[in-house]
Design a protein that fits this description.
Number of helices: 11
CATH architecture: Up-down Bundle
Number of strands: 3
Structural class: mainly alpha
CATH topology: Rhopdopsin 7-helix transmembrane proteins
Mean pLDDT: 80
Radius of gyration: 23 Å
Largest sheet: 3 strands, mixed
Shape: globular
Helix content: over 70%
Length: 327
């Protein structure tokens, strides 16, 4: 029957051995803890965060800079917009709803895109560290090394890597049997809280998650720290003005890296254990960090501020030019 085939698909096998089990069709999101009665306050706050995230990152994407660094920065802004859109609109809708449910397919889609954009961003931050290394340690050959073909190849590679990572993690999750518990202890579907609902031993899957997500985060973080250690050593030989500008750019990148990878290491290095702080960290990760990225980069980078000033200047000029003279 169709029901039997559906069960076989979700369970990854034939459940015809007399087991009276039910296939879960939806999950219930428990949301952010200790926020009962605060929905009318939280909704406009997070809506404002989300709108500012969209505006700030779209401004960076349309700033009109054409260097390798800003090619990657535009990719980062695009990922941040997508990353926030995966979780925040659903969270906003749940603030206004009593039934905080999500379909099984919707939950799977949320997990897939969440890990796609998160892993791609980790790889992108690592590539951006390499870009800064080349720019600071080998400035005479920077544009030759980081030419358009190399930038496109690196961008394609990080997106491919994020896709493979997300497919592997989501594939392992949906192959588990889900037969009863439906309450996801978070405000969005993520792999650690979802696999805790499986009706089977998930120890092997948890080890694979640590090996996958946790290891990627830790290794990339170590690579980034080593890269910036080399950069800082090389800056000792620079003149004060060049050193100040390079340090400002590196500080902005390191701040973003710390905020982003700190969450990944905190959550995915021990998926079998749940802390009350997990939800607070997840809120910051999904709703606040994508907003902080454009603020950090624009406030600490003179080139970006000049580009945005030119962008706004052109818009003001066009608006003023379209108004007919009077008097």
């Amino acid at each position: 029957s169709l029901t039997h085939l559906t069960e076989c698909f979700f369970w990854g096998g034939d459940r015809s051995h007399g087991e009276n089990l039910t296939v879960v069709t939806h999950f219930i999101l428990l949301g952010i803890p200790h926020t009962e009665g605060l929905q009318n306050i939280l909704f406009p706050v997070f809506l404002l965060f989300y709108m500012c995230t969209l505006l700030g990152n779209l401004l960076i994407m349309t700033a009109g800079l054409h260097t390798p660094m800003y090619f990657f920065l535009s990719n980062l802004s695009f990922i941040d917009v997508c990353h926030a859109t995966v979780t925040v609109p659903k969270m906003l809708a749940d603030f206004l709803s009593t039934a905080k449910t999500i379909s099984f397919g919707g939950c799977v889609a949320q997990m897939f895109f969440l890990h796609l954009f998160a892993c791609t961003e980790i790889f992108l931050l690592t590539v951006m560290a390499y870009d800064r290394y080349v720019a600071i340690c080998n400035p005479m050959h920077y544009l030759t090394i980081m030419n358009q073909k190399v930038c496109l190849l690196l961008a394609g590679t990080i997106w491919l890597g994020g896709t493979v990572h997300s497919l592997a993690l989501t594939g392992m999750t949906i192959k588990l049997p889900y037969c009863g518990p439906q309450k996801v202890d978070n405000f969005f579907c993520d792999v650690p809280p979802v696999i805790r609902l499986a009706c089977t031993d998930t120890y092997v899957i948890e080890i694979l998650i640590v090996s996958n997500s946790g290891l990627i985060s830790v290794v990339c973080f170590v690579v980034l720290v080593v890269s910036y250690g080399i950069i800082l050593v090389s800056l000792r030989k620079r003149l004060a003005e060049g050193r100040r500008k390079a340090l400002s750019t590196c500080a902005a990148h390191l701040t973003v890296v710390t905020l982003f990878l700190g969450h990944c290491i905190f959550i995915y290095s021990r998926p079998s254990t749940s802390f009350s702080e997990d939800k607070v960290v997840s809120v910051f990760f999904t709703a606040v960090t994508p907003l902080l990225n454009p603020i950090i980069y624009t406030l600490r980078n003179e080139d970006m501020k000049q580009a945005l000033n030119k962008l706004f200047g052109r818009k003001v000029t066009k608006v003023s030019g379209s108004i007919p003279a009077t008097g």
